[in-house]
Amino acid sequence: MAVVDAKRVARPDKRRVILDAAAPIFGDEGYERASVDAIATAAGVSKPTIYSYFGGKDQLFRESVADSAVQLNADALEVIQRLDLSAVGWRDSLRELGLRLVECQRTPCSLFLARMIAAETARDPEVYRLVRAKAEAPIMEALAGRLAMLGNAGHLVVPDPTRAAHQFLALIGAEIQVLTEHGTAAVPDERIRDAVGAGVDTFLRAHARPSQ
User: Fold this and answer.
1) Residue 16 is part of which domain span?
2) Same domain, 44 and 81
3) Does residue 102 contact residue 172 with C-beta atoms inside 8 Å?
4) Most buried among 11, 49, 119, 182, by the most CB within 10 A?
5) Which residue range or ranges hold the HTH tetR-type domain (predicted)?
6) Contact of 143 with 168, CB cutoff 8 Å
């Protein structure tokens, strides 16, 4: 009969377990009503364990929101990495990228998280700072990198790829909040596509090489 070495049995990452338990509780209850006791029970750990990993409810909330943002951004990062750099396909691919990024931002989870971040940042500005560092910065870095590659390929003029990335994201979303009434109104896909396409066209008028 085989003897199992307890030390070799994979143990769940307690930090991961706590974050997974905290996210829905903070989402349902908000920061004020959510209790560390409830999160500890859901995670199957003791309250002191939570404090040993996160120090307190404030930091647990910050880490939970940032972790949720990172997970939601995984699809956006994948879309950015698929941007076509070829001479034939880069324009259409850039338009498709804009549409896919807006779609990522319009999922129910993304909209809910954005509202929570906006609401709680007034109480604790560190919430947004952590989300920006852990979730937004990787998106911006990846997008800036791909735009720089389009520049190196001779398709775009982007002396400052990071600024160009900010401009691209701002332009593709410029009409979306008004069209969707901040995510509360259903809008035909064609109207979203037109709005995003107009944003990409404006970006290209500023950054495409004249011969392009």
Assistant:
1) 12-55
2) no
3) yes
4) 49
5) 12-72
6) yes
Q: What are phi and psi of 174, to 5 degrees?
A: -60, -40
- Closest CA relative to residue 19, chosen from 72, 73, 74, 67: 67
Q: Is residue 3 part of a domain?
A: no
Is residue 142 a contact partner of residue 81, using CB atoms and an 8 Å limit? yes
Give residue-wise pLDDT tens across range 91-130: 999 999 999 999 988 888 888 888 888 888 989 999 999 9
Q: Where do we find the tokens 């209790």? A: 35
Residues 74, 51: one domain?
no
In a domain, 1, yes or no: no
Q: Are residues 126 and 188 in the same domain?
A: yes
In a shared domain, residues 31 and 116? no
> Alpha helix locations (H) across 34-131?
36-43, 47-54, 57-81, 90-105, 108-121, 126-131
Task: Give the model confidence (pLDDT) of 12-65 as tens digits.
Answer: 699 999 999 999 999 888 899 999 999 999 999 999 999 999 999 999 999 999
Q: Which amino acid, 9?
A: V
Amino acid at 184: T
